[in-house]
Write a structure and sequence with these properties.
This protein is of the alpha/beta class. Helices cover 16% and strands 19% of the residues. The longest helix is centred in the last third of the chain and has 18 residues.
Length: 289
């Protein structure tokens, strides 16, 4: 039976924003994966936030009672994308064994995830839960002046960035087509957010880092939370949703009007970047299962 994955944004369907339609290439790729018999591996449901009369999203607020195996949460809000009821249900979902991938972007974009159990503490923002190292609380991307830290510049949209595996190579970073069998690339973005392994979460560790093209600072890309003895499921905290976005997989697909930085076309001209990204999302879906 196909494993059910919910891919969800934290905003309603706003056309000129990062709505769920801007992640269609990810959805299509996961839906197209088949097993040896030709059967679909995943049943993917992709949706934007849809608040009911009580103000919360009925699906998110009852996620722990659903038959979904995974939640891929794209926190594209400005801080108000999740209610306490939704956060509690998502936390219960993982506690019962559900797989969870939570991603956001620069500054305070997606800061509503801070109240998620465990994984929320892995995400650092400008006004909430900043990075512990005060020297990192400074602007990295100096090109887009209105965006403050955290805003690590891994490259323009449409480009790819080199990825360094940290510690023992994690299963989500395995790539049989790459030298040494380790994944080498992910999509770049001019201002990525900040993630780290919470000190009080022994199951969490940083598994991948990148390097700023502006300052040379190394920063965390991916934090993995292993399954826990009490039954809690695996989880991933990702530095930016742009690793999964149509615009970063193919900049010809377009972007919201507020995106001002000129894109690159490297991910189109060099097939290694998108191939590695496809491998990463396949590994991620498999590991979270």
């Amino acid at each position: 039976m196909a494993k059910r994955i919910l891919i969800q944004t934290t905003i309603p369907p706003i056309d000129d924003d990062w709505h769920i339609g801007r992640f269609s290439m990810l959805v299509d790729h996961l839906q197209g994966l088949t097993d040896e018999s030709g059967a679909a591996v995943y049943d993917v449901v992709a949706r934007d936030r849809a608040a009911g009369p009580e103000g919360f999203d009925p699906l998110l607020a009852s996620l722990d009672e659903s038959d979904f195996a995974q939640l891929w949460l794209f926190a594209v809000d400005v801080g108000d994308g999740l209610t306490p009821d939704e956060c509690a249900a998502i936390s219960r979902f993982r506690a019962k064994g559900g797989g969870l991938m939570v991603t956001r972007d620069h500054m305070d974009l997606g800061s509503s995830v801070c109240t998620l159990g465990g994984v929320g503490k892995a995400h650092h923002f400008h006004s909430q839960n900043p990075e512990a190292d005060e020297s990192r609380r400074r602007i990295d991307d100096v090109e887009t002046s209105y965006i403050l830290w955290p805003n690590y510049h891994s490259g323009p949209n449409g480009d790819v960035q080199p990825v360094t595996a940290e510690g023992a190579v994690h299963p989500v970073l395995r790539d049989g087509e790459a030298p040494g069998g380790v994944l080498r690339f992910l999509p770049a973005h001019p201002h990525e957010g900040a993630v780290s392994a919470p000190a009080d979460e022994p199951s969490a560790r940083v598994i991948a880092t990148g390097v700023s093209r502006v300052t040379g600072a190394r920063f965390n890309l991916v934090v993995a939370f292993e399954a826990e003895d009490g039954g809690a499921g695996r989880a991933i905290a990702q530095s930016t949703f742009h690793h999964f976005c149509d615009y970063n997989w193919d900049p010809r697909t377009g972007c919201p009007s507020f995106v001002s930085e000129p894109p690159s076309d490297r991910i189109i001209t060099d097939p290694r970047g998108l191939a590695a990204t496809h491998r990463y999302v396949e590994n991620l879906a498999d590991w979270l299962s």
